[in-house]
Amino acid sequence: MLETPVYPAVLVLVVCLWWDNDMSSENPTGADNQQGSRDDELLGSSLTPQRLHAELLGTDAKSLEAYLQGALRDGTRSALHRTFRIGSIEPGWLMILKQVLETLSQRSWLYREGSARNYWILETTARFLDMGYDARGLVGTEAGLAYVRGYFDADGGMPARSNARLYFQFAQKSYVSLQTVVANLAAWRIATGRIHCPSRRVDPEYWRTYVLARSHRRFMTSVNSWHPRKRQQIELRMKI
Fold first, then answer.
1. SS3 call for 124
2. Can you tell me whether residue 222 is helix, strand or coil?
3. Sequence-separated (6 or more) residues with CB below 8 Å from residue 86
4. 216: number of CA atoms within 13 Å, CB side?
5. Who has the most CB within 10 Å: 22, 185, 213, 232?
6. Tens digits of per-residue pLDDT, 87-127?
């Protein structure tokens, strides 16, 4: 984990005020949210705006971009509007992505998809994003770990309860992208199982791999997560 720097009280106050007013409404023009949701409840108690801000300030731009490229594994691109979209039922994680983009001086907006749906969309015009991004050049670097973190936050799996048997898995349609994840993890001595298709009858193009039990702790300390729910569960596991 990165060491959290100490910031003046004025800066912390500014960050808190910004976060409290930044979440956009259903209007994709970026109007302030009027629903009154508490941001600390959306984010989860283990990843407060102040703590996230400190971590982002301690992360270089290349790693932040790599994190977003990993997160885009669960995203789409609109050729008409030339934007990238990532959807989730957990707006807290999308708020994290929004802050990462703003740290990189990239525009984005967050809105609910449909007034009756509990589904949120983050949309951005960041031109460096690429649906076909090749992360093989990141193997063995901090940016490679950031790419895997974004990939895991978007599409990775782990137990929702701290008393369940621990696992970390990655599942994707792209066999090549999973190979890149495995290579990035191997460079940091994090062992994984083989990439396999769980059921060729159900979907022959669906692939999965997982972190071996002996590498669970190394995965939690080296990769970790910026997804509020997953981050909270990882921190609970680290205390066990």
1. strand
2. helix
3. 71, 72, 74, 75, 76, 94, 97, 121, 122, 154
4. 15
5. 185
6. 999 999 999 999 999 999 999 999 999 887 899 999 999 99
Q: CB-based contacts of 130: which residues, under 8 Å, 6+ apart?
A: 69, 72
Dihedral over Cα of 45, 239, 140, 211: its sign: negative
* Burial 107-125, CB ≥16 within 10 A → b, else e: ebbbbbeeeeeeebbbbbe
135-239 in CATH: which number?
3.10.28.10
The pLDDT of residue 226 is above 70: yes
Closest residue by Cα to residue 148 from 186, 195, 102, 202 = 186
Residue range 9-124 in CATH 1.10.10.10: no
- At position 225, the amino acid (one-letter code) is S
**What's this model's pTM, rounded to 2 decimal places?**
0.80
CA separation for the pair 81, 205 (Å, rounded): 29
The CATH 3.10.28.10 domain(s) of the chain lie at 9-124, 135-239
